[in-house]
Amino acid sequence: MPLDTATVRRIARLARIGITDDEAGRLQGELNGILGWVEQLSEIDVEGVQPLSGVGQAALRMREDKVTDGNKVDAVLSNAPERAGPFFAVPKVVE
Amino acid sequence: MLTDLSLADILKGLEARSFSSVEVTDAFLGAIDALNPRINAFITVDGQGARAAAAEADRRRAAGEAGALLGVPVAIKDLFCTEGVRTTAASRILQHFVPPYESGVTARMKRDGAVFLGKTNLDEFAMGSSNLTSAFGPVENPWKRRGDDAVLVPGGSSGGSAAAVAAGLAPGATGTDTGGSIRQPAAFCGITGIKPTYGRCSRWGTIAFASSLDQAGPMARTVEDCAILLGSMAGFDLLDSTSADVPVPDYRAACGANPRGLRIGIPKEYHADGLPAEIEALWRQGIEWLRDAGCEIVDVSLPHTKYGLATYYIVAPAECSSNLARYDGVRFGERVPGEDLIELYERTRAAGFGEEVKRRILIGTYVLSAGYYDAYYLKAQKVRSLILRDFTEAFGRVDALLTPTAPSAAFAAGQKFDDPIKMYLNDVFTVPASMAGVPGISVPAGLDASGLPLGLQLLGPHFGEERLFSLGAALERAAGFTHRPALRAGIPAGAAA
Amino acid sequence: MSYEIERATGSWELVIGLEVHAQVISESKLFSGASASYGGEPNSHVSLVDAAFPGMLPVINRECVAQAVRTGLGLDARVNLESRFDRKNYFYADLPAGYQISQFTHPVIGAGKVEIELADGSRREIGVTRLHLEQDAGKSLHDQSPDSSHIDLNRAGVGLMEIVSEPDMRSPEEAGAYLRKLRTILRYLGTCDGNMEEGSMRADVNVSVRKAGEPFRTRCEIKNVNSIRFVMQAIEVEARRQVAIWESGSAVDQETRLFDPQRGETRALRSKEDAHDYRYFPDPDLLPLVLEREWVDRLRAELPELPDAKRRRLAEEYGIPDYDASVLVAEKPVAAFFETVAKGRDARLASNWMLGDLFAALNRTGRGIENSPVSAESLGGLLDLIADGTINGRIAKDVFEEMVETGDGAGVIVERKGLRQVTDSGAIDAAIEQVLGAHGDKLAEFRAGKDKLFGFFVGQVMKATGGKGNPALVNAALKARLAS
């Protein structure tokens, strides 16, 4: 099922990556190439096979409910491209 | 020359007070100064930090303290977050990022006294097999074809680390391996590298590419050096839920263990179509070496090998599309302003990511999107179960597997870059082990007809690293690989070829 | 109780399902060690994990899992010994990682139920589909600056339980009753404080309408409604809107809407072109969540008595009416207050006093049971004075008001004001003689057969004793005197 450019645009939008018309055309070709190539997996019968979930250990470790972190506003904001006092700042969001 | 010493010999020299850490660190910094402008193995060189750490190591040693890496200079792949030292993942989007924290792996190495020379180049976000996708420019492989000065790629994604070690700019380095990113560049640069079992080294503080595959490991010129480094890097970390609570054995001792009696499987599916004859020949040679070392050779089958790559190119992009969503220009990293939030995101990510990263994010977004999840991602994770089953069954019969590391020697920049799939095929022999989470080591075993190094890969069962060190050391002894690249510390840059 | 919207074409039935987001009570966040407590300086309850710095990884908080399991047990639900965490991918300024860790395909809690009680005393069971754990998002502040929004991540990563009901409710009243009951259960369990004003409990409401016997029609989801009253209002106006659309011959679009309480209407969320595609997949940073049966059993054994069980017990053990019991158990501290008062006393009297005078006093003073002006011990003391005949019921009302006013104990007030009941037969007889003497005419009428004047004489005698006459003694003495 080859991708059309509209789908490429929709995917780029979902991924929040701006693309130009030229790029959409080029990406369409490249992505179709890759998707066509991975199509080979359809040869395999996976009836009754469980998907892999984590290699190695079986179960999630749980930590104790203690406050061990936080109170590091400076570190949290140390790399902010734009901040307003103790906040991160972004263009006004209208809801 | 200090830069020619193995890591083990540097340790020995430091212990014997034959030289100080400051001296050996200065020697490597000097080599970096001389060669890095050409091979571009380092994105960031931290001379000041390295000298200070070396002086501190000398002080500690003088005070009678010990440490597994006390005073040993090493290079760190620029995917490990280092506190106060810029960490870029070779991406424009993180070009000014200075982490306020130290990764789990590098924290252990620092604890053991290691001196960090700087941060090595890589494919952007570790996505690539050539180091051509770095936003900081490609790395030049220090090896040259005989009589040919063409620039060759060092492999990837840990190409900067591999090139640095091969050229004598560092005695050892950290790498990360998601589908072959330690083993393939190690093979391309004529050094040793091991991808440990998934969960062996903490992923905390290492910038994620594909979380279910990423695994840190060492790269060095000898098997023993890798063992020394892994002994420091490995270990349980409560902050990483996928980290294994398994004791770290004495890997260095394992290098001296006799592999006699081990059963070595030769997977028939790795006899790929179009595999160059000289790689086939080297593989046969490796089999003979292990047989001579007292191993029993057994033919085995890993029937789903050929699907490894396609599976990988669904799973890894899917995970990366989600892992890289945090680079949005809000809390850290570069930002390109926009009229509204969506425009800010789209411009920031369009400008911040390179072509290969974008390609993989888009593929990953697509295979996870509504209506396609089952056909792609779920299917791939089921095939992954079959790949793991292949390995589990094989390791029920044999102790380790021997294969070539890569289907070719280092290639020239531009040679394969036009077609992404052609590039992906580089990882055909390394990806299946990544999919199964089993450890693999690449050991330089010989040169091809043009004088480029080729590697052999040993794969073991989960937490079978000791066996790989023992077998790797046996291969290393048998191969007697002492070749060095044309570009290396102490050799004038212009003298190559 | 049936609730239908009548139109020319017939009557429309409502179909309502609720998704409740309940903030887990815990010290630290679901996947990080930062504080989960409310408030704090902006971005201070934030770890680098919460801010999704490169390489940061989640580690799950055992207590959050325990709270989810307790809640599941409280909803009589299946506990899934194996569940998974998935990533829900979308971009938003207050979602640092670009994904929310949630449980999509394998929630920790499966099907359960909530029994609701309606105003007419009838009970209904509402099915709970599932409960899962997920992370809360941060906060975007839009009113701090004219051209930028500010992001505070203090709430980012706090544990939430999403509790999804079956589309079993048929009226706004049922939805309200469900939310109140769910909140009561959460508070009993101590797993969520249920405070809707602070946002620690929020509801998404799914509404559709249909003709009787039809399969479900298209539903709309009303997001993030933050009070029970608004939930009920939103259902009502949304149902009317949908009925009007169907009646006009058009069809309802499946969409997400917001309730505007000021205007009393729902409106569609903008940006439809950006239809959500969350690309759920298992979070590769986390392994499957596997619970040990023994651990779950231990949590079960440690559960407090839940409202339904408590209601049944109170009715049975104390012999109070079922209705009273259900009112008393709606809040755990009220039930505890009742038990303190009722222990060893007339429980019906205790219940009547609480549901009547005490609740009225709480209402009037704007206080909750936790800081009631009259403690359980004090109310018990008052009841004791009634029981031992120190005061009568009439005087007790005055004493109670004085207790509310002053905070003093009943005994102190009775002594101070001399309100002891008059049981001295001489004093009562004297009062009788005084009343009969003053009302010769009435006495003549009584003697002539106007029996109901007896009550008049009782009232007058009580008045003459300042209300303190023991009513039984007054009755008996008056009866004897008039018969003579």
From TrEMBL, chain A:
Keywords from the named record: ATP-binding, Ligase, Nucleotide-binding, Protein biosynthesis
Top-level taxon of origin: Bacteria
EC number(s) recorded for this UniProt protein: 6.3.5.-
Nuclease is among the record's keywords: no
Reactions catalysed: L-aspartyl-tRNA(Asn) + L-glutamine + ATP + H2O = L-asparaginyl-tRNA(Asn) + L-glutamate + ADP + phosphate + 2 H(+); L-glutamyl-tRNA(Gln) + L-glutamine + ATP + H2O = L-glutaminyl-tRNA(Gln) + L-glutamate + ADP + phosphate + H(+)
InterPro entries found in the cross-reference section: Asp/Glu-ADT_sf_sub_c, GatC
Function noted in UniProt: Allows the formation of correctly charged Asn-tRNA(Asn) or Gln-tRNA(Gln) through the transamidation of misacylated Asp-tRNA(Asn) or Glu-tRNA(Gln) in organisms which lack either or both of asparaginyl-tRNA or glutaminyl-tRNA synthetases. The reaction takes place in the presence of glutamine and ATP through an activated phospho-Asp-tRNA(Asn) or phospho-Glu-tRNA(Gln).
NCBIfam families to which the protein is assigned, alphabetical: gatC (TIGR00135)
Family statement: Belongs to the GatC family.
Subunit and partners: Heterotrimer of A, B and C subunits.
Protein name: Aspartyl/glutamyl-tRNA(Asn/Gln) amidotransferase subunit C
Organism: Rhizosaccharibacter radicis
Gene name as annotated: gatC
TrEMBL record, chain B:
Pfam families given in the database record: Amidase
Domain spans labelled Amidase: 23-468
Active site: K77, S157, S181
Keyword Manganese among record annotations: no
PROSITE patterns: AMIDASES (PS00571)
Keywords recorded for this protein, A-Z: ATP-binding, Ligase, Nucleotide-binding, Protein biosynthesis
EC number: 6.3.5.7
Catalytic activity: L-glutamyl-tRNA(Gln) + L-glutamine + ATP + H2O = L-glutaminyl-tRNA(Gln) + L-glutamate + ADP + phosphate + H(+)
InterPro entries according to UniProt: Amidase, Amidase_CS, Amidase_dom, AS_sf, GatA
Subunit: Heterotrimer of A, B and C subunits.
Family: Belongs to the amidase family. GatA subfamily.
Functional note: Allows the formation of correctly charged Gln-tRNA(Gln) through the transamidation of misacylated Glu-tRNA(Gln) in organisms which lack glutaminyl-tRNA synthetase. The reaction takes place in the presence of glutamine and ATP through an activated gamma-phospho-Glu-tRNA(Gln).
Protein name as it appears in the record: Glutamyl-tRNA(Gln) amidotransferase subunit A
Species lineage: Bacteria, Pseudomonadati, Pseudomonadota, Alphaproteobacteria, Acetobacterales
TrEMBL record, chain C:
SUPFAM superfamilies, per database record: GatB/YqeY motif (SSF89095), Glutamine synthetase/guanido kinase (SSF55931)
The keyword Phosphoprotein is annotated on this UniProt entry: no
Keyword field contains Protein biosynthesis: yes
Asn/Gln amidotransferase domain span: 336-482
EC number, UniProt record: 6.3.5.-
Pfam families: GatB_N, GatB_Yqey
SMART domains on file: GatB_Yqey
InterPro entries assigned: Asn/Gln-tRNA_amidoTrfase_suB/E, Asn/Gln-tRNA_Trfase_suB/E_cat, Asn/Gln_amidotransferase, Asn/Gln_tRNA_amidoTrase-B-like, GatB, GatB_C_1, GatB_Yqey_C_2, Gln-tRNA_amidoTrfase_suB_CS
Keywords for this protein: ATP-binding, Ligase, Nucleotide-binding, Protein biosynthesis
Catalyzed reactions: L-aspartyl-tRNA(Asn) + L-glutamine + ATP + H2O = L-asparaginyl-tRNA(Asn) + L-glutamate + ADP + phosphate + 2 H(+); L-glutamyl-tRNA(Gln) + L-glutamine + ATP + H2O = L-glutaminyl-tRNA(Gln) + L-glutamate + ADP + phosphate + H(+)
Top enzyme category: ligase
Classification via PROSITE patterns: GATB (PS01234)
Family membership: Belongs to the GatB/GatE family. GatB subfamily.
Function as written in the Swiss-Prot or TrEMBL entry: Allows the formation of correctly charged Asn-tRNA(Asn) or Gln-tRNA(Gln) through the transamidation of misacylated Asp-tRNA(Asn) or Glu-tRNA(Gln) in organisms which lack either or both of asparaginyl-tRNA or glutaminyl-tRNA synthetases. The reaction takes place in the presence of glutamine and ATP through an activated phospho-Asp-tRNA(Asn) or phospho-Glu-tRNA(Gln).
Assembly, per entry: Heterotrimer of A, B and C subunits.
Protein name (database record): Aspartyl/glutamyl-tRNA(Asn/Gln) amidotransferase subunit B
UniProt source species: Rhizosaccharibacter radicis
Gene giving rise to this polypeptide: gatB
